[in-house]
Amino acid sequence: MSEERVGVYVCHCGSNIAGTVAVDEVARWIGSQPNVVVARDYKFMCSSLGQELIEQDIKEQKLSRVVVAACSPHMHEKTFRSACQRAGLNPFLFEMANIRELDSWATDDKEAATQKAKAMVKAAVERVVHHQPLELIPVNINPNTLVVGGGVAGITAALELAEAGYHVYLVERESSIGGHMAQLDKTFPTLDCSACILTPKMVDVAQHPNITLLSYSEVEAVDGYLGNFTITVRKKARHVIEEKCTGCGICTEKCPKRVIDEVFEAGLGYRKAIYRLFPQAVPKYPVIDMQNCIYFQRGKCKACQIFCPTGAIDFDQQDELIKFEVGNIILATGYDPFDARRISQYGYGRLANVFTSLEFERLVNAAGPTGGKIVLRDGVTQPQSVAIIHCVGSRDRNYNEYCSRVCCMYSLKFAHLVHERLPGAEVYNFYIDVRASGKRYEEFYHRILSEGTHFIRGRAAEVTDAARLPGEEGKLIVQAEDTLTGRQRRVPVDMVILSIGLEARHDAKEVAQKFGLGCDFNGFFIERHPKLDPVTTMTEGILIAGACQGPMDIPETVAQGAAAAARVAGLISRGTVWMEPVRAHINPDLCSGCRICNTMCPYNAIVFHADKGISEVITALCQGCGACVAACPSAAITGAHFTDQQIMSQIDGMLWDVKPQAKAEVAS
Amino acid sequence: MSMAATMVRAPTFMDEVIAATPGECHLERCLQCGTCGGSCPSGPDMEYTPRAIFAMIAAGMKDQVLRSNTPWYCVSCYYCTVRCPQEIHITDIMYTLKRMAIKEGFYADSTASDAPDFSKTFIDFVESNGRSFELGLATRFHLRHRPLDAVRMAPMALDMLRKGRMDLMPKQIKGIKQLQAILAKAKELGGAA
Amino acid sequence: MKYGYYPGCSLERNASAYHQSTLAVAEPLGIELSEVEDWNCCGATEYFSINLLPAYALVARNLALASQQPENGQLVAPCSACFLNLTKTDRYMLDSPQLAEQVNQALEAGGLHYKPGSVRVRHLLDIVVNDVGYDVVAARVSRPLKGLRVAPYYGCLIVRPGYQSMFDDPEYPTTLDKLLEVLGAEVVDFPLKAHCCGGHMTQISQPVAFELIRRLLKNAADYEADVIATLCPMCQLNLDAYQDGVNSLFKTNYYIPILYFTQLMGLAFGMPATKLGFGKEFVNARAALAKIGVEAPASAPAEGATRRRQAAKEALPMPRMPKEE
Fold it and tell me: What region, left, alpha or beta, does residue A662 occupy, with left being phi > 0 and alpha being psi -120 to 50 degrees?
C-alpha cells in the first residue's frame, strides 16, 4: 500500500468525452479507489481554470501524484505537466489517461465506453504511484548549421542565418547552387526574370563570411543528435583547382566533347565534358564529367589542361572528406519533375513536338539552347499554334493524386510568353480548374484572359499525329471534351507543352534514412504538423524547407526557408535546450557485457567499454524506444518512466475487474 | 463521437447506379474533368458524353440519363476507364445504365432504341443453344428493325456462308439443360433485368 | 506447357482461321491446348447489358468447367472479348464474396462450383510472348517474313482494362510488335494500334462503326502497311468484312488484308498457307503471300515514305526513351 496522495481529474472535453462516457460516474468511482484523495470531473481541463484546479489541489490537498483522464498526451501532456511544475510538483509525477481518442471517439456504446474509461483511469492511478521524479536533460546547441540543398529554399535559409551572425555550411550536390529556380525564365505573377532575382542572392551566398559553400558535394554521414551533430561531407573532385581557376572559360571552349545536358538544359541543349552548369554559376569553377571526358574514358585529349592559362586542371584530384560539427540541419533538397514518358497517350518522347514545361522554360530562356526563340524540335520552325495541357501527372490516381500547385500558374505564364514572343500564334490551354490562389495570382489569370488565349475546360484525353479531319495533316492533334459545351473537340496545333507536376526527389527515401526523418507515401518529407509546424520534423534538430516538403511556389518556398532559419536562430540564441528524460540506463553492476543491446539500438546510442566489459547508454542519443530494456537477458537496463513495476501496475489496474483466477494466469 | 459508416440521408439516383454496378465503381469521385468524353471513340455521336451523363446522374436526372443513347453507343473500348484520374469504372457504369434503361423501359425513347433488342436477340440464342448464332441474330434483328439494311447486307451474309465463316444452323452444347438451370437460378437470385 | 483452351464462339466458325492457325503453331511452340469440355458462349458484350447476375453465371460455368481440368489452373483465350469476360468475372467474384456466393448458388443449380481465383485466364498472345518467349519463337522461324510490312493491331480488350493483370501498356503496347519483328517482318508502328474497331457498332450504327474502321485502315495505309495483324475475331471481322463497305461509304480504296498473328507465325515457321486458314478473308491475302515467297531486298524505306525524317543539324535533341529489351 502506497503512501502517495493521488489527484484524479476526468475531463468532459465538452461533449467529445462526456457524450459517450459517463464522466461523473467515473470520477465518483475512482474517488473511492485506494490512494485517490481527490477526484473531480470538469468540462475543459486544458483551460486555464482547469489547470488552476490542479494547481490548487496540489497545494491544498498536498497531492504527490496527478492523473488527468482526457485527450491524447500528444495534445496536452505538456500542458498538465507544466501545471504540476508551477505548483511545485515534479512534472513526471503526472500521468495521462487517453479516454478520448482511445475510448469515447472509438465507440458509440456508452456502457462499454464508461467501463473502459474506468479501467484506463484505474491503470493510470496504479502506475503513477510508482513514478519517480525526473529532471530534463540539458543539451548545448552548437551555433553552426548545416543546410542541405542550394536551391532558393536553402539559399534563403543560409542567408537568414548568416545575417543573424551564425555560421552556415551550405552543401549542394550539383556543381552550382541555384536549383530549379535557376532554370526558369520568367516567374509568375510578376514575370520577373528568375535568374535576375536569384543570382544576386547566389553571389551573396558565395561572398558571405558566415557561409561555407560546399558545392559539388554530398552529405555522406550524419551522426549525433540535436545541438551536436557530426557531419561528414564528400566534396567530389571537380578536377579543377579552385584556388587557381579564374573562371575564364577557355577550357569549356576548347573541350572537343559535346554531350546532351540532361540536368540544366532538361535534355534540350548541349554542354561540354568540362562545363559550368550555367553562365552565372556559383561558384564559377567548372567541373569535369568523368563519364564523358575523353581523357578519363580513353586517356587522350587533355585540351582543357593544355589551354588553361593558370594550370588549374588536375586530373588526379581526389574526392575530399570533410567533417564538421553543427547544432541543426535544414534539409532543402527540392523536387524532381514528373516523368512525362509515363503517360504514353500524350506522346512525349515519341512525337517530336511534344515538350515538357521544363524543356519549354529552357526554350524560352534567353540563355537557353535557342537563345530564347520558341521553335519546334527541328530547331528552326516557329510554331503558329501551341497547346498547353494542365495536370500532367497530377490530380491523377494513376500517377500522383495530389495537385502540384504551381502548374496552373506557370501554364498561364507560358500562354503569356507565347503571345509575347510569337504574336499571332494561337494558344490553347486545356484545364480542369484554374488554380490561382496566391497573392495577385487571380489578377494574373484575368490578364491572360484578355490576351486572347483559348481556354478549353477539358482534361486532354490524348495527343496524336494521326490526322483524321481536314487541317490536321502534319499537325499534332489534342483531343479533349470541351466540357463547357459538352462536345468532343480535336484541336490541331504545331506544339504541345505538357504541364508536368512536381514529385519528391527520387532518392528522398535514402536521404530521409540518412538524416533520420520520415517520408510520406509520395516521398515528401513529413513535417511535424501540417498547419502549425510545417518546417520542423519529428526528429529534433532536423528541419525541412521548400519543395522537399511538398509542391510549392517560390513565395512559399522562400517563406519556409526563412521560417526554418528563424527556428534555428531561436534555438541557437537560447544556447541550451532541455530534452525529455525518458531514456534507458544500464546498471553497471548487473551488466554481463553480452552486448545484445548494442546491435539492438536503432539509434546507435549504446557503447561498449571493452576495458570494463560493460555497455553504457549515451543518454543524449537515446530516444527511449525500450528495445534494449526488453532485450537485456540480465534485466540490467531500466527505461526511465517505463519501469517494469510501472508497466505491470498499469496492466493490473487495467484488469481491475477481471476475476482473480484469470488475473493470476496473466501475472505468471 | 464516432462517425457511423452508413449514410443516413435519402438514397439518390447516383446511389442507385453505384449499388447496381459490380465492385466499387467510385462514381462519387467524379470531378468532371472530361477525360472520358475526350477519349470516347463514339463520343461525338452520343447525345451526352459520358462526363455529361455523370453530371446528370449527380443531379438526379434519371429520366434524361436513361432515355439517352449514350450507353448504347459505348463500344466497350475501356479508354475512359484506364485514363480516368479518379479510377472510376466508367465502362461498367455504362453497362449498368443499359440494364437500368431496359428495366425502366426508357430505352424505347432513345435514338438507339433498337440497340437493346440486338443484345436481347443475341442472348436469346445463347440461352437456347449455349452458343451464339450469328445468322439468326443478324436476320432476326435486321428484319425486325431495319428491313432495308437486311436486304443490303444479304450479299455479305452470302459471302460469309460461302467462305465458311457462318453456320446455317445453330450449334447446341451438350449441357444445355445444365446451363438453363444455372441461368434460371441466377435470374431468380438477381431479380429480373 | 499445358493449358486449358477456351476458343469462344467466333473461333468455331467466323474466325476458324484463328483457331486453325493457333492449333497449327501450338506444336512447334511446345504448347498443349486442352479444350474445355462443353464450354458455352461467354456472352460477348451483350449479356452484361441485359442482366448482371445471369451474365456472370454464364461466364462462370466456363470457369467452373475449366477448373475441373487439371491444366495447372491456366486457361488460354485467343479472343479478346472472351478474355475480358473471363477475367472480369473472376476478378469481381474474387473482390466480392457476396457476388461469388450468388454466382455459386446459380452454378450449383447445374451441379457446378467455382472458387474465384483458381483459374488464371491468359490471352493467347500473352502465353506466346511470356511463357514460350521470343527466343523460342525466333528459333522456329524458317521462313522470315522479310519484306512484309505488317501493322500490329491490338484492339482494345487485350490491353484494357486489365482485370487480372496489365499484360502490356494500355496505350502503347509493344509485345506484338516485338513478336512480328522476331518473325522477320518489317513492323509498322502505327499510332492507332490500340484504338477501337467499333465492336458491335456495325449492327447498332453503321456510320459510327464505319468511321472507326476507316480511321484504322487509313492510319495503317498512311504508314504503308501491307497487312494488318490482329488478335481478336471481332477486330478481324470488322476490318476485313466491312472494308468494302467502308470504301463505298467514304470513296476510298483500301485493300489491306487482315490476318491473325498466328497465321503469320505459321507462315514464318514454314507451314503452308492451306494449313493456316487462309482463303476465308474478304480482302484476299494472296498479294501479301507473294511478297514473302519472293526474296525481298534488304528492307529500306521506300522513297518519301518514311515518316521519320533525318534530324537536321540545328534540331533539338529528343528526350531519351527507356531502352526496349
Answer: alpha
DSSP per residue, A636-660:
-EEETT--HHHHHHHHHHHTTTS-H
Q: Between chains, do B173 and C38 touch, taking CB under 8 Å as contact?
A: yes
Residue entry with cell 535557376: A182
Q: Are strands A385-392 and A495-500 parallel, antiparallel or unpaired?
A: parallel
Distances (CA, A) of C100 to A328, A444, C57, C84, C116: 58, 56, 10, 18, 7
| Cβ neighbour number for residue A503 with a 10 Å cutoff | 23
Yes or no: say if A229 and A329 are a contact pair by the CB < 8 Å rule: yes
Indicate yes or no: CB of B182 within 8 angstroms of CB of C56.
no
Residue C72: its pLDDT value, please? 65
Could you tell me the three cell numbers for A215? 558545392
A243's CB contacts (< 8 A; 6+ apart) are: none
* Number of neighbours of residue C295 by Cβ within 10 angstroms: 7
User: Cβ of C215 and A468 within 8 Å?
Assistant: yes
The residue-averaged pLDDT of C240-265 equals: 94
Question: Cβ B49–A345 below 8 Å, yes or no?
Answer: no
d(CA B20, CA B13): 11
The residue to which cell 496527478 is assigned: A66
**Strand partners for A260:** A270
Find the helix or strand (DSSP H, E) in which C93 lies. Answer: helix C80-95
Residues of B with CB below 8 A from C61's CB? 178-179, 182
Which residue blocks in C117-205 are alpha helix, DSSP H? Answer: 124-126, 134-140, 175-182, 201-204
Tens of pLDDT, residue by residue over B36-84, are 999 999 999 999 999 999 999 999 999 999 999 999 999 999 999 999 9
Cell triple for C277: 486458314
Tell me the residue ranges of DSSP E strands in chain C.
2-5, 32-35, 74-77, 120-123, 149-152, 186-187, 227-230, 258-260
Do B193 and C51 make contact, defined as CB atoms within 8 angstroms? yes
For residue C152, the SS3 value is strand
Closest CA relative to residue A127, chosen from A624, A647, A666:
A647
Superfamily (CATH H level) for B9-109:
Alpha-helical ferredoxin (1.10.1060.10)
The answer, yes or no, to whether the previous bond of C161 is cis (omega within 30 of 0) is yes
Cell of C249: 461509304
The HSE-up count of residue B143 (CA atoms within 13 Å, CB side) is: 8
- 3-state DSSP call for residue A148? strand
Average pLDDT over every residue of A401-416: 97
Identify which of B45, B132, B160 has the shortest CB distance to residue C208: B45
Helix (H) / strand (E) containing B81: helix B79-83
A270 CB neighbours in chain C (<8 A) are 317
Q: Specify whether the CB–CB gap between A124 and A652 falls below 8 A.
A: no
Tens-place pLDDT, residues C86-103:
999 999 999 999 999 999
Strands C227-230 and C149-152, bridge-based pairing: parallel
Residue C166: pLDDT band (50, 70, 90) is confident
Q: Which residues on adjacent β-strands are paired with residue C5?
A: C35, C76
Nearest CB to C212; choose among B41, B114, B175: B41
Nearest CA in chain A to C214: A468
Q: Is A51 left (phi over 0), alpha (psi -120 to 50) or beta?
A: alpha
For residue C323, pLDDT over 70 is answered with no
State whether residue B27 is helix, strand or coil: helix
Domains of chain C and any CATH numbers: 2-124 (1.20.1050.140), 143-307 (3.40.50.11810)
B177 to chain C nearest CA, in Å? Answer: 8
Dihedral sign, CA of A463, A464, A470, A474?
A: positive
Q: Please report residues of C whose CB lies closer than 8 A to that of A465.
A: 191
**Structural domain boundaries in chain B:** 9-109, 115-190
